Amino acid sequence: MDNWCEISHDRLRQHATRSYRQGGGSRPDVLLIDIDGRKAVLKDHNACDQGFGQLLGPLLVSREAKALRRLDQIAGIPKLYATPNSRSLLMEHLPGEPLGQFGDNPAWEQFFIDFERLLREVHASGVAHCDLRSPENALICESNQPAIVDFVSCVFRGRRWNIISRWLFEQFSRADRGALIKLKKGVAPDLLTPEEERLLHEQTMLECAARWVGASFRNVSRWLLTKSAK
Predict the structure, then answer these.
(1) d(Cα 23, Cα 44) in Å, to the nearest integer?
(2) Of 15, 18, 96, 122, which is most buried by a Cβ count within 10 Å?
(3) What is the dihedral of CA 72, 76, 79, 83, to 10 degrees?
(4) Nearest C-alpha neighbor of 139 from the set 91, 174, 69, 171
(5) Rg over CA atoms, the chain
(6) How do residues 36-75 score in pLDDT, each as one tens digit?
């Protein structure tokens, strides 16, 4: 739909037909929008508690929008349609089911081959997802194709001169690959290779530190900026 940018935030919400996630605290609303049969997904940080939404909402939207623009040409990544306001973004609807909700799949082997290819393309474009441990962020779409959503926690590859940033990016990319192996173990453990089994038991100091920093930031921001923590 070429005119998504012309539709106001309020009108978009009036055409919500499904809630994928209910907002509140530090969580945004994630809504399926259907206007005359055209579908999109609205991620709306206006639904967060007021302090969190006002202070961090624009930053989170800007970060995810930057990632989606960078990954615009990759099939399996939702395209960014619009940012209706500073605390919301509208993106392509990819019909599919989260990996964590999917039952038996006789084609797991090909699915994970395609998933590994998709993740390589994402990393080659300079984006590390950083939250693939959540099976809700990996989708199985039509024709058994993988998709990746929710880039709010992503990390970008630094410029050539920024050696530290580029090294950190490689570590987060490695963590993404480890998360993919864990997803595979969760649904198709018989497909794990000996190398993947070995990597599964490796855990770098940086990965531990990154998770601790991320969890600490989320906990502190929720405590300071959301009502539910008071």
Answers:
(1) 8
(2) 122
(3) -110
(4) 91
(5) 18
(6) 999 999 999 999 888 888 888 899 999 999 999 999 999 9
In the chain, the percentage of residues whose pLDDT exceeds 70 is 87
CB atoms within 10 A of CB 215: 10
- The conformational region for residue 150 under phi > 0 = left, psi -120 to 50 = alpha, else beta, is left
Map out the domains of the chain as residue ranges.
Answer: 4-92, 96-229
Class of domain 96-229: mainly alpha
Q: Is the pLDDT of residue 230 over 50?
A: no
pTM for the full predicted model: 0.87
Question: For residue 126, what is the DSSP state?
Answer: T
Mean pLDDT of the region 91-110: 86
What class does CATH assign to 4-92? alpha beta
